[in-house]
Structure formats: C-alpha cells, structure tokens
Amino acid sequence: MNLLQLQENLAAARLKGANEETTEKAVAVANACQQARKYETAVACLNQVLPDVQNDAGLHAVMQTALGTAFWEKAQLKKSLIHFSAALKLFKETDDKPGVAIVLAIVGVTFWRKREWKKALEILKDALSYDKGKNAELRFASVHGAFDRSIATLQNRVQRGRDLQVPMKILQPLFASAALYLVTGNLDELQPCLNESVSLAEQLGEVDIVRAAAGIKQLGCLV
C-alpha cells in the first residue's frame, strides 16, 4: 500500500471517530514516511492526530512512542528520549507490559548507539524482563520498521568497512548492530556479530567493547 492510500485510510478513520483505528493508521503513515526519509512529514502527521487521543492514556502512549521513533530515525536522540519517557510513564500507569518492553528496548538501543554501554545493558535487561506479549502489533509498526532499517544501514556500513579493509570501520557498525539483534530476537545474527566484534576489539585494544560484548552475550540467554 502506497503512502497516499495510507493517508486516505487515516483520514477515513478520523472521520469515523475511531480512535484506536486512527492510532494504528497514523503509525502506519509515519512508518511509511520514515521509510522514505520524510521524517518531518511523519512528525507532522503524528502531531496532527495526537489531540484525538489525548484523553486515552494507552493510545496517547502509542503516539508518544511513534513520535519518539520518528525523531530517533532522524538522529535527534534528545527529542526522541523526551517522547519515550512520556510513553513509558503512560504504559506503566496502564500496566501495558508490551508497551513498556518496546519502549525500554528502543531506549536501550539508543544508549547503545551513544556508546553508553553500561547504562544500555541495564535498560535492555529491564526490557527483557517484561512479557513482550503482542509488541509486534500494528501499534508498534514504526518501531519495528525503524529497527529493520537501522540493521540494514549498519550492515551496509560494515560492508563498506570490509571493502576498505579498515578494522575500526568494521567494528563500529558491527558492534552497534548487537543491541538491535538482541531486541529483535535475532540470535542467529547476534552470536557471530559478537564473536567478530570481540576479535576486532581485542586487536584494536577496545577493552570497553570486549566488556560490553560479554554483558550483551549474557542478555542473549534471556531472549
């Protein structure tokens, strides 16, 4: 389904006053926009719909998560964390465990990207302690889309590093991928990713990465 069709579906849901459907359609539009790198369009769409669900804590939390994800893909991490914090608070208030799990997952990946590995590991461990339940529902489509696109981008960077035969240019995107493989449950990719990352880190004297790799390997047992 193309972006125009998704926008028409969203408009129809809003006309019906169906807030849950509106939320799912808005997330679908945002995800499509982000896939096309139209981040401002995604944010504008979500902000337009946000007042519709202001009085429903659960739907409001989903919209805050989607807004955080749009800024996350735009690499505006400070803004993304503001929205994720708001979403996390609402999900906890409504005892929405899949919601808590998905927000903690993307926040953990955020700190992993920032190379704050100790903090990231604590958050990721917390995320894995929650029952994910139906966190692959349509309401979280943009989060999963962002994860998939980030993995693809990092894999391309790893390949460029291999082509250049520069170990550090391989290690950085490769190790950045580890948290994404963890939260998406892709253990088949996680293990070889960690093995190669540790080997390269030892060669380059990146002791912190070796330590962080041991930590995330332990978390892999919880998936």
Describe the fold and architecture.
- The chain has eleven helices and no strands.
- α7 (117-128) runs parallel beside α11 (207-220).
- The protein is mostly helical and 223 residues long.
- It is globular.
- It has a domain at 1-77.
- The mean pLDDT is 94.
Mean pLDDT: 94
Give the uncertain stretches in residue-range form. none
Order of helices and strands: HHHHHHHHHHH
Number of strands: 0
Number of helices: 11
Biggest sheet descriptor: none
Gyration radius, in Å: 18 Å
| N- to C-terminal distance | 33 Å
Report the helical percentage.
Answer: over 70%
Shape: globular
Q: Approximately how much beta-strand content do the residues carry?
A: under 5%
Structural class: mainly alpha
Main attributes?
single chain; mainly alpha; 223 residues; 11 helices
Please sum up the structure shown:
With 223 residues, the chain is mainly α. It is built from eleven helices and no strands. The protein has a domain at 1-77.
What's the arrangement of secondary structure elements?
Elements: H1 3-16, H2 19-35, H3 39-49, H4 57-73, H5 77-93, H6 97-113, H7 117-128, H8 141-164, H9 167-183, H10 187-204, H11 207-220
Helix pairs in contact: 1-2, 2-3, 2-4, 2-8, 3-4, 4-5, 4-6, 4-8, 5-6, 6-7, 6-9, 7-11, 8-9, 9-10, 9-11, 10-11
